[in-house]
Design goal:
The structure is a single chain. The chain is α+β, with helices and mostly antiparallel strands and 273 residues long. The chain contains four helices and 14 strands. It folds into two domains: 60 residues, 2-Layer Sandwich (Arylsulfatase, C-terminal domain); 192 residues, Jelly Rolls. 15% of the residues lie in helices and 37% in strands. Strand 10 and strand 11 form a beta hairpin. The C terminus is likely disordered.
C-alpha cells in the first residue's frame, strides 16, 4: 500500500516501509518473528542472502497477484481515465438495486450536485410517504423522504445528524429536488425544492469525503444501515408508498485545487476515526 510492502515465509518477515521518491529502490528490513515477535531487531545487514531470497519471492508473488503498479509520493489511488465516466449524470429507476458505493461517491465528492426525484402518475397524493432516496449509513450519508405529508431532507455528517423540514408537499407535485452547492472550508449548502420552488435550506454542512458515504445510493427505500437512526426506529426502511418513477443525479465539476484531494481525504478519515 502506497509503496510499502511485506512478505512472510517460515517465520521470516521481510518489510520495506516508506519507500521515498524511488518506489523501485526499497530499503528492506528482515525479522525472525519466531524469536522477535515485536520486530525490534532488524537482521537485514547480517543476513543479506535471506533478504535477497525473500525479496525475489515477494516480487514473484506481487506479479502473480496484480500488486503492480506500486504507488508512491503519498498517492492513495490511481484510477483509469475511463473512470471519468462514473461522474456523469445517472438516472436510477425505482426498484433498482443500490448503486455501487464508489460510483455513488463519484457523483457527489468535492462537487456541486443535484438530485431530482420524479413522481409518476398524477404526482404526489395524500397519504404517500417514505424514503425517496438514501445514500449512506450511520457513518455518514443523507436522505430525502416524506412523512406525514412533509418533505424532509436529513444529513448525517460522520454521526452528527441534522435535518430540514421543507413543509407540506402540494398534491400533484411531480418533482422533488435537493441542490448541493460547494461552500468554503469543505462545506455544502443544501436547498430543497418542490417543482422548482425553494422550500427549505440546510447551510454550511460538512462535506462527505474519504470513506463516507460508505454505502451506495438506494431509491425508494433506505436499503442499508440507517442514515437516521431515529427514522429507522420509527419507520424501518420506510419504503415509499407512492408512484416514484426515478431519481436523477447531476454532478457538477470537482471544486478542489489540483493535488489537494488526497490530503483532504486523509484528514477526513483521521477526523472520522
Amino acid at each position: 500500500m502506497t509503496g510499502n510492502r511485506g512478505y512472510y515465509r517460515d517465520g521470516w518477515k521481510l518489510l520495506a516501509l516508506h519507500p521515498g521518491p524511488d518506489v523501485d529502490a526499497p530499503r528492506w528490513q528482515l525479522f525472525d518473528v519466531r524469536t522477535d515477535p515485536t520486530e525490534l531487531h532488524d537482521l537485514a545487514d547480517r543476513l543479506p542472502e535471506k533478504v535477497d531470497e525473500l525479496a525475489a519471492a515477494w516480487d514473484e508473488a506481487a506479479w502473480a497477484n496484480t500488486v503492480f503498479p506500486l504507488l508512491s509520493g503519498g498517492a492513495l489511488a490511481v484510477r483509469r481515465p475511463a473512470e471519468q465516466a462514473l461522474s456523469r449524470p445517472v438516472r436510477i429507476l425505482a426498484g433498482t438495486p443500490p448503486l455501487e458505493r464508489h460510483r455513488s461517491s463519484k457523483l457527489i465528492a468535492f462537487r456541486d450536485f443535484e438530485i431530482a426525484a420524479e413522481l409518476g402518475g398524477s404526482g404526489f397524493a395524500r397519504g404517500d410517504e417514505g424514503v425517496l432516496v438514501a445514500h449512506g449509513d450511520p457513518q455518514g450519508g443523507y436522505l430525502l423522504y416524506i412523512e406525514d405529508g412533509h418533505l424532509v431532507f436529513g444529513l448525517n455528517s460522520y454521526g452528527r445528524y441534522t435535518s430540514v423540514d421543507a413543509g407540506p408537499v402540494p398534491v400533484g407535485a411531480s418533482r422533488l429536488e435537493v441542490s448541493a452547492t460547494v461552500a468554503p472550508r469543505l462545506r455544502w449548502d443544501f436547498t430543497v425544492l418542490v417543482d422548482g420552488v425553494a422550500a427549505g435550506e440546510l447551510l454550511g454542512q460538512v462535506q462527505l469525503v474519504g470513506m463516507a458515504p460508505w454505502t451506495g445510493i438506494s431509491v425508494g427505500v433506505d436499503a442499508h444501515g440507517p442514515v437516521s437512526w431515529d427514522l429507522r426506529q420509527r419507520r424501518g426502511p420506510f419504503r415509499y408508498t407512492g408512484a416514484l418513477r426515478a431519481v436523477t443525479y447531476t454532478p457538477g465539476p470537482v471544486q478542489v485545487p489540483g493535488g489537494a484531494i488526497e490530503r483532504i481525504e486523509r484528514e477526513a478519515e483521521y477526523a472520522a476515526d
